[in-house]
Design a protein that fits this description.
heterodimer, A: mainly beta, Ku70, Chain: A, Domain 2, two-stranded antiparallel sheet, extended, B: alpha+beta, three-stranded antiparallel sheet, 14 strands, 25% strand
């Protein structure tokens, strides 16, 4: 059963069910089948560093250890950024209504890479998404909100917009860093050492033909 | 930062750089004792301790159940829980032995999981930094329309590497900014192939966007391999397939206003193609028939030839025989005639010698011999 998200638009709340849409559902998928010379099917496994321990699929686990090599449970861990500042955690988007306040330009939307696509429908049978909101979407507006499926350290930027066929989409994205570039900001093709003026003058003074 | 060989609207090409624009914000975790906690991969089970091996060792599943209650045959205390690193990926067969020579097939499935095709694994060659530059197709799609039709799952910023390429890219960005559109970028000779950044990697449709602020510019390459649409009820084409990708690229580049007209055009084109295909098939069939006829003639010739040869041989034998007979007859008649002529000549010679003694009779006599 599809989970439902609650939105808050201009003080009015409405719930939407979400349905994930991906390439597999649209076009199908391509699986890789591996066979040996006899035509028998093979499975992927891992070979440990000792060269003899064969680990089947699912035969490994991951966990956290502290600098002393002691096992640490996930619930005891505190998320911090590179500066050591504690990061605030966010709750799941299914736990509370998401505000629909900010609209964004096409360029701002295009600055994001879409990770997940959900189709939004009225949560209840016979129900409807707020008509005023639908009208705004139909006029071409794109709304920005935050989304986190399970809750955690960060919420992802999410956008709601109407598709060509009038379907309403929730797009979970990742933000990108896109800046204007000018002539001086050329990409580095090879390692170059730039000399400052003083060093350059020194180099010129020291220029001699003895080495030739 | 990969190179990208790209063409502008004037068909001038240059190799520039495509930068990743992803923001990487690492999150670290601190344990209760302080200090950063690290993730480690640990061993949980080996192939000698999976269900098949254990039940084989125990003799039966019931015996295995009993053994599990009584002891811990599923745990290797010496090895389980050890940290793993530098682990190699290998293929194992049903006997859980490492396989060194493998072949790989692609199982193409439709959206409902039904197997459509089984083919040898294809690995598309990279084409963004190839000898043939990416083509400026000129297919413009309004930005508002593009974001509602395609899912742009990745993007790269195209940047210059020197003064010359700065002018080149700034010009492109200006042109695209004026059009307020995204332009479809194609690979290959035809300029219709999807973009492949690494051999065997995911193929994407590339859409170029330009923004300009005075001397500064942004040239963004939006990558998409999915359309923003509801899964269809009936079977749809897979854009991962090269040929179909080209077709979808054509349709992707079309404006929605032209959709109706485009649909008509496509139907016309399709009918034209079908007709052409039919003609071709008819031609092919006739050619095939001819070829078959030729082949059949070629196949039948030995028998006929043999019969003909036999007949010919008979004829030739008969001819030879008749010739021989004729020769024999001729020879006999010649002999007879020669005898006659010799007799005549002898009688003449005798008469002549009688008339002119010491003449050329000797020479004539030699000739006769």
């Amino acid at each position: 059963m599809a989970r439902s998200l609650e939105f808050d638009f201009e003080g009015r709340k409405f719930a939407c069910s979400i349905t994930k849409v991906d390439r597999k559902k649209l076009y199908g998928a391509v699986d890789i089948e591996t066979i040996d010379v006899d035509g028998d099917r093979c499975e992927l496994a891992s070979l440990a560093r000792d060269g003899k321990t064969l680990i089947p699929f699912g035969g490994t686990a991951a966990g956290y250890v502290n600098p002393d090599g002691e096992w640490v449970f996930r619930k005891d861990l505190t998320p911090v950024n590179l500066d050591g500042d504690v990061l605030e955690t966010v709750e799941s988007s299914f736990d509370s209504p998401s505000g629909l306040v900010n609209t964004v330009s096409i360029e701002e939307f295009l600055n994001h890479s879409v990770r997940l696509v959900y189709r939004l429908d009225a949560a209840e049978e016979g129900g409807a998404i707020d008509p005023a909101f639908v009208k705004r979407l139909a006029s071409g507006e794109i709304y920005r909100t935050e989304f986190s499926y399970r809750g955690g350290v960060q919420a992802d930027p999410a956008f709601i917009m109407a598709g060509q066929d009038g379907v309403i989409w929730l797009l979970i994205t990742a933000e990108n860093r896109i800046d204007f570039v000018n002539l001086e900001q050329a990409a580095v093709c090879a390692s170059t050492v730039e000399l400052d003026d003083a060093e350059e003058e020194e180099e010129l003074d020291e220029l001699s033909f003895d080495v030739l | 930062m990969p190179n990208i060989n790209i063409t502008d609207s004037r068909k001038r090409d240059a190799v520039v750089k495509a930068e990743s624009v992803r923001i990487y914000e690492p999150v670290q975790y601190v344990g209760p004792k302080g200090g950063q906690a690290y993730t480690r991969k640990v061993l949980k089970a080996t192939v000698e301790h999976d269900y098949e091996s254990l039940s084989e060792d125990a003799g039966s599943p019931e015996a295995l159940g009993k053994a599990l209650i009584e002891s811990d045959p599923e745990v290797d205390l010496e090895r389980f829980g050890m940290f793993l690193w530098n682990v190699s990926r290998v293929y194992i067969n049903e006997d859980e032995e490492i396989v060194f020579r493998v072949e790989q097939n692609e199982l193409v499935k439709d959206p409902w999981g039904k197997l459509k095709e089984r083919r040898p694994r294809r690995r598309a060659e990279a084409n963004v930094d190839a000898d043939i530059p990416l083509t400026w197709t000129g297919h413009m799609i309004d930005k508002h329309e593009a974001v509602r039709r395609f899912v742009f799952s990745s993007k790269m910023q195209i940047v210059h590497i020197n003064g010359l390429t700065y002018d080149f890219l700034h010009g492109m960005a200006t042109e695209l900014a004026r059009a307020n559109s995204l332009m479809l970028l194609g690979g290959g000779k035809s300029g219709k192939k999807p973009l492949v950044f690494r051999r065997g990697s995911v193929a994407y449709r590339g859409f170029l966007e330009g923004r300009v602020d005075g001397d500064k510019y942004i040239l963004l390459l939006h990558l998409s391999n999915t359309e923003l649409k509801v899964p269809a009820g009936k079977r749809t084409a897979d854009p991962a397939d090269d040929d179909e990708l080209m077709e979808s690229g054509k349709s992707a580049a079309r404006a929605p206003k032209e959709k109706g007209a485009a649909a008509e055009k496509t139907t016309k084109k399709k009918t034209a193609r079908k007709k052409a295909a039919k003609k071709k098939s008819v031609k092919k069939k006739s050619v095939k028939k001819k070829a078959v006829k030729k082949k059949t003639v070629g196949k039948k010739t030995p028998k006929k030839d043999a019969a003909r040869k036999k007949a010919d041989d008979k004829k030739t034998r008969q001819k030879k025989a008749s010739k021989k007979k004729a020769r024999k007859k001729k020879g006999a008649s010649k002999k007879k005639s020669s005898k006659k002529t010799a007799k005549k000549a002898a009688s003449r010679a005798a008469s002549s010698t009688r008339a002119r003694p010491g003449g050329s009779s000797s020479s004539r006599g030699n000739n006769k011999r």
